[in-house]
Amino acid sequence: MTKKERATFVINTLKELYPEIPIPLDHKDAYTLLIAVLLSAQCTDVRVNQITPILFKKADNPYDMVKLSVEEIKDIIRPCGLSPMKSKGIYGLSEILIEKHNGLVPQSFEALEVLPAVGHKTASVVMAQAFGVPAFPVDTHIHRLMYRWNLTNGKNVQQTEKDAKAIFPKELWNELHLQIIWYGREYSPARSWDIEKDIITKTIGRKSVLDEYYKNIPPRFKRDGIS
To answer: 112 with 79: CB under 8 angstroms?
Structure first.
């Protein structure tokens, strides 16, 4: 298959598997989404969804958040990891939202990316999921799968994002990045990977990835022609 044909196969398969696409992080508005995405750095979405109700019960808007101390925020979000940095970021960005944006989350990449603890990926998620602006946030699942599917060279997430935007139609970016995340979790994980369940990689996967996979499984499970 050509790269375009592989991309089309990905789109069609994911559309069939995920006609409805839930957003992994629980939130009620742009602010709570921003905080949840910030907390998700090096933390599972499941854990974040356990912690955010506790935090948001005390403060689900920037005005209430700055009434808490950084230490109070840190104690609540500690299970998410990186709590010293994240708590300072949450407090600091809440102050800036009040001072510069009337307490509202700005609707531009530039304004989001200058907020404390907010990088390009976090800004992209908020722009896509809160405001419907086309973006292609690349997390570890997308980075892994785009490489396995031979749609990027996998050198870094910046290159993966560039390649994804080049090959997938812009009007599909917001739903497609979520579909790939769900697919990566369910069918193509980094560990305990069963390629028989991973129809996309099995069909269009990078030859070196497939060869490495089959080389490391017991002979009776190897595909025909591979010894």
So the answer is: no
- 139 annotated active-site: yes
According to DSSP, residue 223 is labeled: P
Query: From the candidates 60, 86, 121, 163, which is the catalytic residue?
Result: 121
121 is catalytic: yes
The DSSP code sequence of 128-159 is HHTT--------HHHHHHHHHTTSS--S-HHH
**Tens of pLDDT, residues 175-186:** 999 999 999 999
Report the predicted TM-score, pTM, of the whole model to 2 decimal places. 0.88
Q: How many residues does the chain have?
A: 227
Over residues 44-101, the pLDDT tens digits come to 999 999 999 999 999 999 999 999 999 999 999 999 999 999 999 999 999 999 999 9
Instruction: Of 46, 53, 11, 27, give the one whose Cα is nearest residue 131.
Output: 27
What letter represents residue 201's amino acid? T
